[in-house]
Amino acid sequence: MGNRIEREVTALRAWQVTTHGEPADVMRAVEVPVPEAGAGQVLVRVRGAALNFPDVLMCRGQYQVQPPLPYTPGVELCGEVVGSGERVVGTPVLPTGALAEYALMESDSVYPCPDSLDDAEAAGFLLAYQTGWFGLHRRAKLQPGETLLVHAAAGGVGSAAVQLGKAAGARVIAVVGGPVKAEAARALGADVVVDRREGNFVAAVKEATGGRGADVVYDPVGGDAYQGSTKCVAFEGRIVVVGFAGGTIPAPPLNHALVKNYSILGLHWGLYRAKDPEAVAACHRELTRMAADGTIKTLVGARLSFEEAPAGLTRLAAGENVGRLVVVP
């Protein structure tokens, strides 16, 4: 089937960003030639494309990696390798991103798709769970019985961290925005859920821990979430800085970390693929096992059509999503 598709299809539908700005303003649906795989690359038919916050930042021209214009956005997919039909997950090679019918991938960045997950669940599996695993285990060294505070706990990255924290034997405090997200966090297994719109999460963490604070903080938000975390992190606690979805990059006074004796840990998962690729492969095997036994499962909040991709990125940018937003054929 793969060879037949490769022979017959010469053009494909794709979204392209032609100038920088908000996704709904700068994305255009076009037809482009099917990309040709170079040395060390494979061509895949996209079966699901997960939307990620870096996609928004790239559209705005604000991400640390910026492909040349025009480019097809989408940094994560589940696909079928043309020629073999193998179902895989991974990150495509920009500028041929995942928001298209076909995309290119580096052969050494292709991972077997977990059989226990459907295409949409698999599309949103790699980045969120790899980031959570490396953040909680490699960086923070989360221990059974410790308290884990997760910000944006009903989002794509946060929902993965909640599940991984519970699997590690931690007590999980989830911070969310709104009752729908609170319900989702409870369903994921969070022990304590705090709606930041209704209450102060700092006070809630202190109350839940008898004043001790959270041993590990998982923060993909930044801004006020980070500042509040410094007020409720435990003695010898660890704050894992994952991202800045809130739009503000904090400038923390380091004397505060010194006085309270806590650690600030940066996490850029993409570096591990270059610095320690075997660790990434081993992590994928372990996460695949956990998915197979039902310990973790991608929370898919919505399955979007190709035409809904720009609107999906707008929802993501506004923090209106629960779980992953995935574009499926």
TrEMBL record:
Any one GO MF annotation of this record: zinc ion binding
Domain of life the protein comes from: Bacteria
Pfam families the UniProt entry points to: ADH_N, ADH_zinc_N
Residues of the Enoyl reductase (ER) domain: 21-327
Protein name: Alcohol dehydrogenase zinc-binding domain protein
